[in-house]
Structures are given as structure tokens and as C-alpha cells.
């Protein structure tokens, strides 16, 4: 990512003045919201180690599927982060909550990841602890492919006789 480009988190600052120093470990996130913004930006710029390393040590961290996280980061087109609310999580707090939406497109389907995330400050560093995911409706980005339409894979067959074939 270019040094002067706008930060993916939507703060209006440049990446180098916003999330990059947090992602690169130059400084700690001062608030739970700033960590949430940096984690979103890390998905956009494919910094998977940062995403994993900013999760609280413990049972949940061992459940992180690095390959799935990396695939989601790499294969998605990221459209933006929207912070809906924060609860505590200031520089003087030890716990905080950030409710957010992260819009993205994956495999031609647009989705909105809506989560209420909890954070703890441990030894001066904010860490993601848990998240409560809200279900959303996935929307197709492009035109729906009909069963009798040509298959988009380019085989020349009808969709129903190629990639749309059911078992």
C-alpha cells in the first residue's frame, strides 16, 4: 500500500499515519476502537499475523484457522468499515466493546460482517477477546445465472450441465 494513500479503516488519515504503525508494531493501539480499525485494515492489506497476534491468548485463539483467515483476507474485495458504537475502550479503560460492520464481496456475493466485539487491555496492549456476529443477508453482486445460460467458466456448456450441476 502506498505511504500517502488513505487508510482502509475510513478514518480519513493516511495509512502511514493511522493503522500502519499499529499493524507494524511501532506503537500500540491507544483505544479498543483503534485496534478494531487496525484489525480491519490488516484484513485489507493481508497482515494475517497481526490479526492472529491481536487476539487474547487462550482457548479461542487456538481455534483461529490461519488458512481460512488468509483466504478471506486475500479473496475478498473490501468496501469499508463502519463503527456503529463503542462502549468504554478508552485509553484509561481495561475493557471495551466496539460494534461494527465490515462490507466486502467474496465470490461475487456482497456481505456485511456485523459484529459486536469485546476487547481487553492486557499489559498496556488492547486485544480482541470475543465477538458476537449478527447474521446478515448476502447479496449477489452480478446478474443471476439462469440454468440455461452459458456457463461463466467458459466451457461452452449450459450452466445446468456444467458448474450448476447438482449431485
Jot down its keywords.
4 helices, alpha+beta, 167 residues, elongated, five-stranded antiparallel beta sheet, single chain, 30% strand
Helices and strands, with pairings:
Elements lengths: L19 H4 L8 H13 L3 H6 L12 H10 L1 E12 L6 E12 L2 E14 L2 E10 L4 E2 L27
Antiparallel strand pairs: 1-2, 2-3, 3-4, 3-5
Mean pLDDT: 88
Gyration radius (Cα, Å) is 19 Å
**Topology as H/E string?**
HHHHEEEEE
The residue ranges in which pLDDT falls below 50 over 5 or more consecutive positions are none
Alpha-beta content class: alpha+beta
Give the overall shape.
elongated
How many strands, which pairing sense, and closed or not: the largest β-sheet? 5 strands, antiparallel
First-last Cα distance: 43 Å
Tell me the number of strands.
5
Amount of beta strand: 25-35%
Helical content class: 10-25%
Describe the protein in words.
- With 167 residues, this protein is of the alpha+beta class.
- Helices cover 20% and strands 30% of the residues.
- The chain is built from four helices and five strands; from the N terminus they run H-H-H-H-E-E-E-E-E.
- Strand 3 (109-122) and strand 4 (125-134) form a beta hairpin.
- It starts with 19 loop residues before the first helix and ends in a 27-residue tail after the last strand.
- 23% of the residues are buried.
Amino acid at each position: 500500500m502506498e505511504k500517502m494513500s488513505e487508510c482502509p479503516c475510513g478514518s480519513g488519515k493516511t495509512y502511514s499515519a493511522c493503522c500502519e504503525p499499529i499493524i507494524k508494531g511501532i506503537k500500540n493501539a491507544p483505544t479498543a476502537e483503534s485496534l478494531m480499525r487496525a484489525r480491519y485494515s490488516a484484513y485489507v492489506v493481508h497482515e494475517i499475523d497481526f490479526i492472529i497476534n491481536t487476539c487474547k491468548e487462550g482457548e479461542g485463539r487456538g481455534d483461529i484457522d490461519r488458512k481460512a483467515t488468509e483466504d478471506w483476507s486475500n479473496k475478498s474485495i473490501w468496501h469499508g468499515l463502519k463503527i456503529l458504537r463503542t462502549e468504554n475502550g478508552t485509553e484509561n479503560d481495561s475493557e471495551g466493546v466496539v460494534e461494527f460492520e465490515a462490507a466486502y464481496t467474496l465470490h461475487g456475493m456482497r456481505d456485511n460482517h456485523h459484529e459486536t466485539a469485546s476487547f481487553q487491555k492486557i499489559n498496556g496492549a488492547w486485544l480482541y477477546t470475543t465477538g458476537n456476529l449478527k447474521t446478515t443477508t448476502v447479496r449477489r453482486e452480478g446478474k443471476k445465472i439462469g440454468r440455461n445460460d452459458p456457463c461463466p467458466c467458459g466451457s461452452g456448456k449450459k450452466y445446468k450441465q456444467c458448474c450448476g450441476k447438482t449431485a
